[in-house]
Amino acid sequence: MKVLKSLFFIAITFGCLAACEKNETPTATIIDKFGEVVSLKVGESTEINGPNFVLSFDKVIEDSRCPNGAECFWEGQADINLLINNAQAIEVILRAGHEELAKDTLDGIVFTLIDVTPYPDLKEILPIPTESYVIDIQIDKL
Questions:
Q1: Cβ neighbours around 115 below 10 Å, total
Q2: Which CATH architecture does the domain made up of 26-141 adopt?
Q3: Whole-number CA gyration radius for the chain
Q4: Residue ranges of domains in the chain
Q5: What is the pLDDT of residues 63-111, one digit of tens each?
Q6: I need a labelling partner for 24 at 20 to 30 A (CA). Which of 1, 35, 69, 76 fits?
Q7: How many Cα atoms within 13 Å fall on the side-chain side of residue 22?
Q8: pTM
């Protein structure tokens, strides 16, 4: 009887551990309709109308935006590299007065960079750590 109780206890323990297991697989959202704005951190991805078209925020190529609290002769820009299906690179640039640089098109889909956060600030740590960046990107059909 003692053996049966021990086996029951072990089975319950393993069952609880399996049910409580934490799943930390890549973060991916699925866009079912176009016109949505998606927020992505560096390394995050989103599926567009299914798993055959995946958009990833690959890296920040450059962030030369003039920090809050500074006087600059040029407003600067945030240059972002996106990947489609981990192969095709798209570059979008957020620069005041140059909205055309924030857009790129691939396979009839338009990617528009809406925002890059955080914004540089002299009161904060500069350069901004890569893992802190978040982009807002709108995805539309042509």
A1: 14
A2: Sandwich (2.60)
A3: 22
A4: 26-141
A5: 999 999 999 999 999 999 999 999 999 999 999 999 999 999 998 899 9
A6: 35
A7: 1
A8: 0.77
Distance CA 134, CA 42 (A): 7
pLDDT of residue 20: 43
Rounded distance between C-alpha atoms, residue 34 and residue 122, angstroms:
37
Positive or negative torsion for Cα 68, 101, 56, 79: negative
Tokens of 106: 């691939």
- Give the per-residue SS3 of the chain: CHHHHHHHHHHHHHHHHHHCCCCCCCCEEEECCCCEEEEEECCCEEEECCCCCEEEEEEEEEECCCCECCCCCCCCCEEEEEEECCCEEEEEEECCCCHHHHEEEECCEEEEEEEEECCCECCCCCCCCHHHCEEEEEEEEC
